[in-house]
Amino acid sequence: MATIYNGIISGKIGDKIYYSFGGKNYVRKAPERKAPPTEKQLRTRAKLVATSDFLTSLRPLVDEVWERRRYIKNTAFGSAFSYMMRNAVDSLPEGPSIRYRDILLSRGSVYLPQELSLLREACDVKVSWENRYMRNTFYCRDEDEVIVVLHFPSDNANIIYRGEGVRRDEVMSVAIPEVFAHDCFHAYFLFASADGQRSSDSVYLGAF
What InterPro entries is this protein classified in (predicted)? Predict the structure, then answer.
């Protein structure tokens, strides 16, 4: 509502706001009301939150092991984020659902082993693999570092194991903290070259 005093308009008329300040008269356009978000927009936002909650704490690792030539966005983290949004998060009426097996933490050119397995006994975890494929070639070095990531969804917590084994070992044993002794985790495996220049795609080992 606008008022007129001594020929000067003050207030709102249509989408215009008239006001005085410092002895001068001004007019500006009223801010537009934003329409409420659509159901599709709400679901997209929920997927963004779910993806961010999972990946953000793993960003330093992703930035290191996602090879530049495998980028689908401008950065390693952006590439991993986009990949997860498109391939590993479903929009359901009750909220987003993560398909952990379809997440990639790394993409690269280093060869993966033919066989991979994980055995869990309480807090003891043993990862095994076979190292018989094109040994000691450029993309398959005996000294390639083994990286294992455990994700605990109940706490949205991650444990990254590094420096515990190399490709030639064919087995790596680690211990998880007692606080997670009874919690389910999702496990991921990848290789990184000793010089830090190359890595493999990550592999989902399963839920345990």
Answer: DUF6266
Is the Cα dihedral 118, 145, 155, 75 positive or negative?
Answer: negative
> Which residues of the chain does CATH 2.60.40.10 include?
39-207
Candidates 194, 139, 133; CA nearest to 166 is 194
Query: d(Cα 83, Cα 77) in Å, to the nearest integer?
Result: 10
Angstrom distance (rounded) from CA 78 to CA 71? 8
Give 5-10 contacts, CB < 8 A, sequence gap 24+. none
End-to-end CA distance of the chain: 65
Strands 171-175, 124-129: parallel, antiparallel or unpaired by DSSP?
A: antiparallel
Residue 170 CB partners (closer than 8 Å, separation 6+): 128, 129, 130, 131
Position 65 scores a pLDDT of 97
- The segments of the chain whose pLDDT lies below 70 read 1-15, 18-23, 27, 29-30, 33
Residue type, 160: I
Give the pairing of strands 124-129 and 2-5.
unpaired
Q: How far is CA 22 from the centre of its chain?
A: 52
Task: Report how far residue 19's alpha carbon sits from residue 139's, in angstroms, rounded to the nearest whole number.
Answer: 70
At 77, is the secondary structure helix, strand, or coil? helix
CATH code linked to domain 39-207: 2.60.40.10
pLDDT at 131: 85
